[in-house]
Design a protein that fits this description.
Structural class: alpha+beta
Helix content: 25-40%
Number of strands: 21
Shape: globular
Strand content: 25-35%
Oligomer: single chain
Largest sheet: 15 strands, mixed
Amino acid sequence: MIDDKKDIDNLDNEALDTLESIKTSDNDIASQADNEELNARMADLMALAAAADSQRRDDNVDQRLKEFIERHDTKPRCIRLWPVVVAVAACVAILLTVVIWKGMGTEGCMEQQNPIVFSIAKPKADVQVKSENGRKISRWNCMKEELVVDEMPTAEERLVVDVPQGEKLTVSLPDGTKVYLHAGSSLKFPTRFNDSLRVVELKGEAYFAVAKNKEKPFVVKTSTMQTTVLGTEFNVKALGTSDDNVVLVSGSVSVAAASSSRIIRPGQMLKVGNDGRLAVEEVDVTPYTCWRDGYIYFDDITLKDALIYIAREFNYDVEFHNSSLLNMKIHFVADRNEGIKGIVENLNMMNLVDVKIDSQRIKVSGSITDVP
C-alpha cells in the first residue's frame, strides 16, 4: 500500500486526469465494445471514486488505479457511449469533491454547522452618575462624552460612574487626572481627595493619565490588584478574569496582588495569574494609546477577540458561521467615530471574511481557505 500522503495525492490526481481524458476524447466509439468490457470499465470508475477517500483505501484499490492509468495510456480512449459518459462525469464529480475535501482538511470544510454566538449586547442605557449609596446625581452633564467633576466645598462624597455597553466616557477628576473609560466599565472615586492617597476603584477597563502629586500617590484598586503611581500614564484591564493586566505607557508604577508586588517600566505589561502570581512581559503600547484617542487598533489578534472588542464598543452580539474563522489573526485599524457601519465596511475591505449587520448582531461568514 502507498503510505506517503503525497504519493497518494499524486496517484489520485493522475487518475483524475485520465478520467477527464476519457470523457473529452474525440476518438470514434469502438463498435466492438461489449458488455463485459463496459462492466469492467464501470467497476474501475467506481473504484476510482472510492479510492479518493484515503480512509477506505487499500492495496487492491491502489493497484487497480495504477492498472487503470497504464491501460488507458496504451489503449485508444474510445469509450464515449452516453451511459458511460454520464457515469464518468458522475465519478469525476465524486472524485473532485472528495479530493477537494481531503485537501481542505477539517479547518477549511464548509459543511453545515450551527453558528457560534457571543451574547454581548445589553439593553440600551445612558451613562449614569450616582452616589455610593445609589442616589442618582444629575448635576453633571455627560452628553459630550466627558464628565468634569468639580471639587465640592463640603465633605467628601464617593461617586460611581457607570458606562454602559456601546458608550464611552472621559472623566476629569478633581485633581486633574483624566480617566478614559471603556464601554461597560465602572469607576468609583471621591469628589475630594482629602486623604494621603488618591484612591479610585475600577471595574472593566480604563486608561489613566494621572496628574503628578508626590505628596499624594494615586491608587487604582480592582478585584485582583492595586496599582500605585505618583504621576504617569497607564492602562488597567480589570474584568475579573485571567486577562486582567496593567500596561505602563510612561513613568513608573507599582502593582500589588495577593502577597507580592512588582514595579514595571514603560512598554511592559503585568498580568495577575489565577494563583495570584505576577508576570511581566514586553508589549507594544500602541493599542492602548490608540483606543484612548478614539481609534480601534488590532495587531496579530484573533478575529474572535477583535469582534468581541468591537461588539462591546458598539453594544452588539457576534455570530460566527464558520468556526475556523475564530482564530484567524488580523491587523486592523479604524476610527471609532465612523460607527459600526464604517467599521464593518473596513473589515470587508480586507477581503478575508464577509461581515454583515443584522439588527443588533454582527454576522461573520466566509472561509479561512479564502485568505491569501
